[in-house]
Amino acid sequence: MTKIKVGVVGYGTIGKRVADAVRLQEDMELVGITGNTYNFRMEVANDKGIKIFTVADDADFKANNITPAGKMQDLLNAVDIIVDCTPKKIGRANKEKYYIPNKLKAIFQGGEKPDVGEASFVAQCNYKEALNKDYVRVVSCNTTGLSRTLHALEEKFGINSVTATMIRRGADPGDIHHGPINAVVPVLELPSHHGPDVKTVLKDLEIFTTAVSGSFTLMHFHTLVCEMKKKVDVKAVIEVFNNTPRVRVVRNAEKVRSTAEIMELAKDLQRGRGDMPEICIWEEAVGAHGKKLFYMQAIHQESDVVPENIDCIRAMMGFEDVEKSMEMTNKSLGIK
User: Fold this and answer.
1) Which residue segments constitute the domains of the chain, with CATH numbers given?
2) What backbone phi and psi angles, to 5 degrees, belong to 160?
3) Residue ranges of the alpha helices (H) in 234-321?
């Protein structure tokens, strides 16, 4: 088997997870990652035997006993595709500076505007749109979560419209620079960007979103109201969610009553880094009134886009079987 040679540019919250996920794929080879400055993440990558290609001066790496494998251009010369996991706006700059001149395929993350790529991507929703493309954006953690569950409902029952509120974590657990510490901060823009972003994937869905940020770090939380095309049975909806890839139904009966307990569950499942890539929906929080369906879901912002990046690699390299790709990815990552 000729393996897909993958490079990861940016080794932060998402990049380090994507790099580890690539290493678990039988049909992929992680050629290396980029390092901008020396830090503990670079130490961990080096300990794992991951090749590090420096973006700038490598003196700081060598001073800390890390010998880089080369410069970023050396990485670009050795790969079939790049997964760019840099902060927003940097990915677009990298496209112009590096990927286009090198005629290199690249995946971008949800912080970039949709027009950075030829398609926005969620595997189970629009895999075929990314087939053989050169530039694709994997949408944000919140958009991924909304798209997964709403696509399942639309396919099974049909949806007239959706209103949803994002209650966003204030910062990632390891982030010491953001907040709020003691406040709720509303997004003073209606709709919030999440609804329009969902429409880059589910183009015909009528959706309106609002958002706030709160003083917690573990997960994002969504409340959704769907105006369905017909009355739906709650049990039938739960069955759909139970049978939807990368969605997990949790229950109060299991004493999973909060995002904290979801993350504790992920640790007990012995997930890498204690991640929960599935979108978690509380069974007891699924309800219906007439044609209106209500449900609540939790999004692990650090990991739910990781399997999407893996499937996007395959799609862009011409692998046509979405179900097989998702099956391979899920099995390798130990997720539903």
Assistant:
1) 4-139+305-333 (3.40.50.720), 141-299 (3.30.360.10)
2) -85, -45
3) 234-242, 259-268, 306-316
Mean pLDDT throughout 55-65? 93
Per-residue pLDDT tens for 265-321? 999 999 999 999 999 999 999 999 999 999 999 999 999 999 999 999 999 999 999
Q: How far is CA 193 from CA 51, 78, 125, 152, 166, in A?
A: 37, 36, 19, 22, 11
Catalytic residue list contains 141? yes
Place of tokens 């494998």: 69
**Amino acid 57: pLDDT:** 87
Whole-number Å distance between alpha carbons of 96 and 92:
7
Q: What is the DSSP letter of 98?
A: I
Res 215 pLDDT > 90: yes
User: What is the reported pLDDT for 1?
Assistant: 76
On the 0-12 / 13-18 / 19+ scale of CB atoms within 10 A, 225 is middle
Say which amino acid occupies 274. G
Sequence letter at residue 32: G
For residues 18-46, give the mean pLDDT.
97
* Cα torsion 82, 331, 253, 146: sign: positive
pTM over 0.90: yes
Catalytic residue among 141, 226, 280, 312: 141
Amino acid at 77: N
How far is it, in rounded angstroms, from Cα 14 to Cα 91? 13
Structure tokens at 54: 């420096």
**Strand pairing category for 70-71 and 52-54:** parallel
